[in-house]
Amino acid sequence: MTRTVVITGAGTGIGEACAHRLAAEGANLVLIGRRAEPLQRVAAATGGLVLVGDAADSSTWDGFIATIRARFARIDALLCCAGGHGLGSASETSDASWQSALRSNLDSAFHSARACLPLLLERRGSIVLLGSIASLAAGPEVCGYTTAKHALLGLNRSLARDYGPHGVRVNCICPGWVRTPMADEEMQALMQHYGDDLDAAYARVTADVPLRRAASAGEIANVCRFLISDEASIITGATIVADGGSSVVDVPTLAYAHLGGA
Q: For the chain, which terminus, N or C, has the lower number of CB atoms within 10 Å?
Protein backbone atom coordinates (compact mmCIF):
# COMPACT_ATOMS: atom_id res chain seq x y z
CA MET A 1 0.00 0.00 0.00
CA THR A 2 1.26 3.49 -0.83
CA ARG A 3 3.04 5.27 2.00
CA THR A 4 1.89 8.68 3.23
CA VAL A 5 4.66 11.09 4.23
CA VAL A 6 4.08 14.43 5.98
CA ILE A 7 6.71 17.09 5.28
CA THR A 8 6.86 20.38 7.17
CA GLY A 9 8.76 23.26 5.60
CA ALA A 10 7.92 21.62 2.28
CA GLY A 11 7.89 24.74 0.11
CA THR A 12 11.63 25.30 -0.26
CA GLY A 13 15.06 23.88 0.46
CA ILE A 14 15.44 20.44 1.97
CA GLY A 15 11.69 20.00 2.47
CA GLU A 16 11.08 20.65 -1.21
CA ALA A 17 13.88 18.27 -2.19
CA CYS A 18 12.36 15.57 0.04
CA ALA A 19 9.01 16.03 -1.69
CA HIS A 20 10.54 15.49 -5.12
CA ARG A 21 12.60 12.50 -3.92
CA LEU A 22 9.64 10.72 -2.36
CA ALA A 23 7.22 11.59 -5.16
CA ALA A 24 9.57 9.72 -7.49
CA GLU A 25 8.86 6.61 -5.40
CA GLY A 26 5.10 7.14 -5.56
CA ALA A 27 4.50 8.26 -1.97
CA ASN A 28 1.42 10.23 -0.99
CA LEU A 29 2.73 13.57 0.22
CA VAL A 30 1.32 16.09 2.68
CA LEU A 31 3.08 19.42 2.15
CA ILE A 32 2.93 21.80 5.13
CA GLY A 33 4.23 25.35 5.31
CA ARG A 34 3.28 28.93 6.08
CA ARG A 35 3.29 30.23 2.50
CA ALA A 36 0.81 28.92 -0.05
CA GLU A 37 2.64 29.92 -3.22
CA PRO A 38 5.79 27.78 -2.85
CA LEU A 39 3.73 24.86 -1.57
CA GLN A 40 1.45 25.04 -4.61
CA ARG A 41 4.51 25.06 -6.88
CA VAL A 42 5.88 21.92 -5.21
CA ALA A 43 2.45 20.28 -5.28
CA ALA A 44 2.12 20.91 -9.01
CA ALA A 45 5.29 18.85 -9.56
CA THR A 46 4.71 16.15 -6.94
CA GLY A 47 0.96 15.78 -6.58
CA GLY A 48 1.17 16.52 -2.87
CA LEU A 49 -1.69 17.69 -0.64
CA VAL A 50 -1.11 21.29 0.43
CA LEU A 51 -1.90 22.35 4.00
CA VAL A 52 -1.06 25.97 4.74
CA GLY A 53 -0.26 26.88 8.33
CA ASP A 54 2.42 27.20 10.96
CA ALA A 55 3.72 23.81 12.12
CA ALA A 56 4.80 25.47 15.38
CA ASP A 57 1.19 26.40 16.20
CA SER A 58 -0.46 23.50 18.00
CA SER A 59 -3.93 24.83 17.16
CA THR A 60 -3.39 24.20 13.45
CA TRP A 61 -2.71 20.51 13.86
CA ASP A 62 -6.24 19.36 14.73
CA GLY A 63 -7.42 20.50 11.31
CA PHE A 64 -4.32 19.15 9.58
CA ILE A 65 -4.73 15.69 11.12
CA ALA A 66 -8.44 15.58 10.35
CA THR A 67 -7.70 16.37 6.71
CA ILE A 68 -4.94 13.75 6.52
CA ARG A 69 -7.19 11.12 8.10
CA ALA A 70 -9.98 11.89 5.65
CA ARG A 71 -7.71 11.83 2.59
CA PHE A 72 -5.20 9.07 3.35
CA ALA A 73 -6.25 7.44 6.67
CA ARG A 74 -2.59 6.97 7.61
CA ILE A 75 0.80 8.56 8.23
CA ASP A 76 3.85 6.40 7.62
CA ALA A 77 6.53 9.04 8.09
CA LEU A 78 7.00 12.62 9.27
CA LEU A 79 9.87 14.77 8.04
CA CYS A 80 10.29 17.87 10.22
CA CYS A 81 12.08 20.22 7.82
CA ALA A 82 10.56 23.50 9.05
CA GLY A 83 13.08 25.86 10.61
CA GLY A 84 14.37 29.39 10.74
CA HIS A 85 17.12 31.73 11.84
CA GLY A 86 18.23 32.68 15.33
CA LEU A 87 20.94 35.28 14.79
CA GLY A 88 22.89 37.27 17.38
CA SER A 89 24.93 36.66 20.51
CA ALA A 90 23.05 36.33 23.80
CA SER A 91 23.41 40.01 24.67
CA GLU A 92 22.14 40.96 21.21
CA THR A 93 19.16 38.57 21.25
CA SER A 94 15.84 40.16 22.12
CA ASP A 95 13.03 38.26 23.81
CA ALA A 96 11.17 38.20 20.51
CA SER A 97 14.18 36.88 18.58
CA TRP A 98 14.79 34.19 21.20
CA GLN A 99 11.19 33.03 21.10
CA SER A 100 11.20 33.07 17.30
CA ALA A 101 14.30 30.88 17.12
CA LEU A 102 12.87 28.32 19.53
CA ARG A 103 9.47 28.41 17.85
CA SER A 104 10.68 27.90 14.29
CA ASN A 105 13.36 25.32 15.02
CA LEU A 106 12.16 23.42 18.11
CA ASP A 107 8.46 24.04 18.70
CA SER A 108 7.67 23.23 15.07
CA ALA A 109 9.24 19.78 15.44
CA PHE A 110 7.65 19.08 18.82
CA HIS A 111 4.11 20.04 17.78
CA SER A 112 4.44 18.17 14.48
CA ALA A 113 5.62 14.99 16.19
CA ARG A 114 3.04 15.13 18.96
CA ALA A 115 0.19 15.63 16.52
CA CYS A 116 1.28 12.91 14.10
CA LEU A 117 2.18 10.26 16.69
CA PRO A 118 -1.29 8.65 16.96
CA LEU A 119 -1.31 7.86 13.24
CA LEU A 120 2.40 6.98 13.24
CA LEU A 121 1.80 4.51 16.05
CA GLU A 122 -0.86 2.79 13.97
CA ARG A 123 1.64 2.30 11.14
CA ARG A 124 4.79 1.75 13.26
CA GLY A 125 6.10 4.71 11.32
CA SER A 126 9.14 6.95 11.40
CA ILE A 127 10.10 10.54 12.21
CA VAL A 128 13.10 12.47 10.95
CA LEU A 129 14.06 15.75 12.62
CA LEU A 130 16.20 18.21 10.70
CA GLY A 131 19.00 19.37 12.95
CA SER A 132 22.27 20.97 11.92
CA ILE A 133 25.96 20.88 12.76
CA ALA A 134 24.77 23.72 15.01
CA SER A 135 23.22 20.86 17.02
CA LEU A 136 26.78 19.75 17.77
CA ALA A 137 28.88 22.93 17.97
CA ALA A 138 28.42 26.68 18.22
CA GLY A 139 28.98 29.09 15.38
CA PRO A 140 29.58 32.79 16.04
CA GLU A 141 26.64 34.91 17.13
CA VAL A 142 23.83 32.45 16.52
CA CYS A 143 22.73 31.90 20.11
CA GLY A 144 19.05 31.21 19.47
CA TYR A 145 19.66 28.93 16.49
CA THR A 146 22.41 26.96 18.22
CA THR A 147 20.34 26.47 21.37
CA ALA A 148 17.25 25.34 19.48
CA LYS A 149 19.19 22.94 17.26
CA HIS A 150 20.97 21.45 20.28
CA ALA A 151 17.57 20.94 21.91
CA LEU A 152 16.38 18.95 18.89
CA LEU A 153 18.83 16.21 19.85
CA GLY A 154 17.12 15.94 23.22
CA LEU A 155 13.72 15.76 21.54
CA ASN A 156 15.04 13.12 19.15
CA ARG A 157 16.34 10.94 21.96
CA SER A 158 13.24 11.36 24.11
CA LEU A 159 10.89 10.43 21.26
CA ALA A 160 13.04 7.46 20.27
CA ARG A 161 13.17 6.23 23.87
CA ASP A 162 9.46 6.56 24.54
CA TYR A 163 8.01 5.33 21.26
CA GLY A 164 10.56 2.75 20.13
CA PRO A 165 8.82 0.05 22.17
CA HIS A 166 5.71 0.79 20.08
CA GLY A 167 7.57 0.47 16.79
CA VAL A 168 8.08 4.15 15.94
CA ARG A 169 11.62 5.11 14.92
CA VAL A 170 12.95 8.67 15.36
CA ASN A 171 16.24 10.04 14.03
CA CYS A 172 17.90 13.41 13.55
CA ILE A 173 19.95 14.52 10.54
CA CYS A 174 22.62 17.17 11.11
CA PRO A 175 23.71 18.73 7.81
CA GLY A 176 26.51 21.21 7.38
CA TRP A 177 26.22 23.90 4.73
CA VAL A 178 23.46 23.05 2.25
CA ARG A 179 22.76 25.16 -0.83
CA THR A 180 19.24 26.36 -0.06
CA PRO A 181 17.52 29.76 -0.22
CA MET A 182 18.08 30.19 3.54
CA ALA A 183 21.82 29.50 3.21
CA ASP A 184 22.00 31.76 0.15
CA GLU A 185 20.79 34.59 2.39
CA GLU A 186 23.55 33.84 4.87
CA MET A 187 26.12 34.10 2.09
CA GLN A 188 25.16 37.74 1.46
CA ALA A 189 27.35 39.10 4.27
CA LEU A 190 30.41 37.33 2.85
CA MET A 191 29.59 38.45 -0.66
CA GLN A 192 29.36 42.06 0.44
CA HIS A 193 32.49 41.95 2.60
CA TYR A 194 34.81 40.09 0.24
CA GLY A 195 33.24 40.91 -3.11
CA ASP A 196 32.51 37.22 -3.68
CA ASP A 197 29.84 35.87 -5.95
CA LEU A 198 27.56 33.18 -4.50
CA ASP A 199 29.74 30.26 -5.61
CA ALA A 200 32.85 31.90 -4.16
CA ALA A 201 31.07 32.52 -0.85
CA TYR A 202 30.15 28.84 -0.57
CA ALA A 203 33.72 27.92 -1.47
CA ARG A 204 34.95 30.20 1.32
CA VAL A 205 32.78 28.61 4.03
CA THR A 206 33.73 25.08 2.94
CA ALA A 207 37.45 25.70 2.40
CA ASP A 208 38.34 23.57 5.44
CA VAL A 209 35.59 20.97 4.96
CA PRO A 210 37.18 17.67 3.85
CA LEU A 211 34.89 17.36 0.80
CA ARG A 212 35.46 21.07 0.04
CA ARG A 213 31.85 21.81 -0.85
CA ALA A 214 28.36 22.36 0.47
CA ALA A 215 25.70 19.67 0.11
CA SER A 216 22.83 19.93 -2.30
CA ALA A 217 19.33 19.77 -0.85
CA GLY A 218 18.85 16.57 -2.84
CA GLU A 219 21.73 14.88 -1.03
CA ILE A 220 20.13 15.56 2.33
CA ALA A 221 16.77 14.39 0.97
CA ASN A 222 18.45 11.09 0.08
CA VAL A 223 19.47 10.65 3.72
CA CYS A 224 15.92 11.43 4.86
CA ARG A 225 14.55 8.90 2.40
CA PHE A 226 16.93 6.24 3.72
CA LEU A 227 16.03 6.86 7.36
CA ILE A 228 12.28 6.41 6.76
CA SER A 229 12.82 3.31 4.62
CA ASP A 230 12.81 -0.32 5.72
CA GLU A 231 16.54 -0.34 4.95
CA ALA A 232 17.02 1.68 8.16
CA SER A 233 14.74 -0.54 10.25
CA ILE A 234 17.20 -0.95 13.14
CA ILE A 235 18.20 2.73 13.34
CA THR A 236 16.50 4.91 15.95
CA GLY A 237 17.62 7.66 18.30
CA ALA A 238 20.56 8.30 16.01
CA THR A 239 22.22 11.57 15.05
CA ILE A 240 23.24 11.25 11.41
CA VAL A 241 25.84 13.85 10.49
CA ALA A 242 25.82 14.80 6.79
CA ASP A 243 28.32 17.66 6.66
CA GLY A 244 31.01 16.72 4.15
CA GLY A 245 33.27 15.86 7.07
CA SER A 246 33.43 19.30 8.65
CA SER A 247 32.71 18.03 12.17
CA VAL A 248 35.74 15.70 12.11
CA VAL A 249 38.21 18.54 11.54
CA ASP A 250 40.51 19.34 14.47
CA VAL A 251 40.21 23.12 14.33
CA PRO A 252 43.37 23.92 16.37
CA THR A 253 45.51 22.08 13.79
CA LEU A 254 44.20 23.95 10.72
CA ALA A 255 47.21 26.28 10.70
CA TYR A 256 49.47 23.26 10.19
CA ALA A 257 47.33 21.87 7.38
CA HIS A 258 47.59 25.15 5.50
CA LEU A 259 51.38 25.01 5.70
CA GLY A 260 51.20 22.11 3.27
CA GLY A 261 48.54 23.67 1.07
CA ALA A 262 45.97 21.00 2.03
A: N
